[in-house]
Design goal:
Structural class: alpha+beta
Largest sheet: 6 strands, mixed
Strand content: 15-25%
Low-confidence stretches: 295-299
Radius of gyration: 19 Å
Shape: globular
C-alpha cells in the first residue's frame, strides 16, 4: 500500500513510523476531519473503491481550502469487515492518493481496524502561508457573494442513481468523485475574502451558517446562477424541470462560496451570485427559502 502513496512536499516522515512529521512553515496548522460510513455516505453498488477514496479525500481537502489554506496532508482511518477484498482496499488507497495529489497534498499515515461495516475517517491538514484564516464570521453588509465551482451536480447525480439511471454521465460522475476548486480557496484569501465556506450540505444551508456567524442577511439571486446544461439534462431524464432546486439545496459538490468587498475585482474562477446586507438569514430572490435548504445528517 505504501508504494501507492507518493511523498508530498510537506512530508518529512511518512508511513512506516509511529507518526508522521510534516513541515509547518506558517507555525499554524489548519485541521479538519470527516467520517464516511457505508450505506450512509456511499454505496459499493453505486461507487467503485477509487470513487469512495477520491470522495473521502475531496470532502476534507475542500474544508481546508474553504479556510483559505493550501492542503498539505491527510491521515486516514479505515475500518472494514473481513470479507471485503484486499483489491477493494488497494483501490480505495488509489482514490485517496489521486485526489490528494490533485490538491497538492499527500497521505501521510493512518490506521486500520475491523468493523461490521466500512468506515473511513479522514483528517486533513493545511497551510495558511502567512495569511489569516477566512472564517464564516466575517461577512459585512455591502459585500458581494460569489461562488467558485459547480453547484447541484452531485445532488443531480444522486437523484439519477436513486432512479436506477447512470445517464447523463456528468452529474453521476460529480456525485461519485466531486472535484472541489482547491486553488480558489487560497486565491480568495489573497483577494481579501471576508468569509468563506464549502457547499458540503447545500448552498442555502451552508450560507445560513455564514449568515448566522456573521450576523448578516445573505441574498442569493437565482438569475445569476450558472445555467448548467448537465443539470437540465438530468432533470429531463427524471421527467421534471427542477434543476434549480439541486443548485440551491444539493450538497457534496464542495464548491466554495465566499463574500468579498464590493470593490474587489474577481477573477474568472469566481462568479457573483448575490450580496450581503443587514438583517439575518438567507433569502432567495428576496424570499425565505422553502424546505431545509440542504442535507441534514440526522434525518
Amino acid at each position: 500500500m505504501q508504494a501507492l502513496l507518493p511523498v508530498g512536499e510537506a512530508q518529512l516522515v511518512g508511513i512506516g513510523d509511529d507518526a508522521a512529521v510534516l513541515r509547518a512553515p506558517d507555525a499554524r496548522v489548519v485541521a479538519t476531519m470527516d467520517l464516511l460510513v457505508e450505506g450512509r455516505h456511499f454505496r459499493r453498488d453505486w461507487s467503485s473503491a477509487v470513487d469512495v477514496g477520491s470522495k473521502a479525500a475531496a470532502q476534507n481537502l475542500a474544508d481546508i481550502a474553504a479556510m483559505g489554506a493550501a492542503p498539505t496532508a491527510l491521515l486516514v482511518g479505515f475500518a472494514t469487515p473481513g470479507d471485503v477484498p484486499a483489491a477493494w482496499a488497494r483501490d480505495l488507497v488509489r482514490g485517496l492518493a489521486q485526489e490528494s495529489a490533485r490538491a497538492g497534498a499527500s497521505v501521510a499515515g493512518g490506521d486500520v481496524s475491523s468493523a461490521d461495516t466500512i468506515m473511513i475517517a479522514v483528517t486533513a491538514l493545511g497551510d495558511l502561508a502567512g495569511r489569516d484564516p477566512v472564517t464564516r464570521g466575517g461577512a459585512q453588509p455591502g459585500d458581494q457573494l460569489a461562488v467558485a465551482g459547480r453547484l447541484g451536480r452531485s445532488a443531480a447525480g444522486l437523484a439519477l442513481l436513486e432512479a436506477g439511471l447512470t445517464r447523463p454521465a456528468g452529474p453521476v460522475a460529480a456525485h461519485r468523485r466531486p472535484k472541489p476548486p482547491y486553488r480558489s480557496g487560497p486565491q480568495a484569501a489573497a483577494l481579501g475574502a471576508t468569509s468563506m465556506i464549502d457547499t458540503s450540505d447545500g448552498l442555502v444551508q451552508d450560507l445560513g451558517h455564514v449568515a448566522a456567524a456573521s450576523g448578516v442577511r445573505i441574498d442569493i439571486e437565482t438569475a445569476r446562477l450558472a445555467d448548467d446544461p448537465q443539470l437540465r439534462a438530468a432533470a429531463a431524464a427524471l421527467g421534471h424541470a427542477d434543476w434549480l432546486g439541486w443548485a440551491l439545496a444539493g450538497g457534496e459538490d464542495h464548491a466554495l462560496v465566499a463574500t468579498f468587498a464590493a470593490s474587489t475585482e474577481l477573477p474568472g474562477d469566481w462568479a457573483v451570485i448575490g450580496s450581503v446586507s443587514t438583517g439575518s438569514g438567507v433569502r432567495v430572490d428576496g424570499r425565505s427559502p422553502r424546505g431545509r435548504g440542504g442535507w441534514d445528517h440526522f434525518r
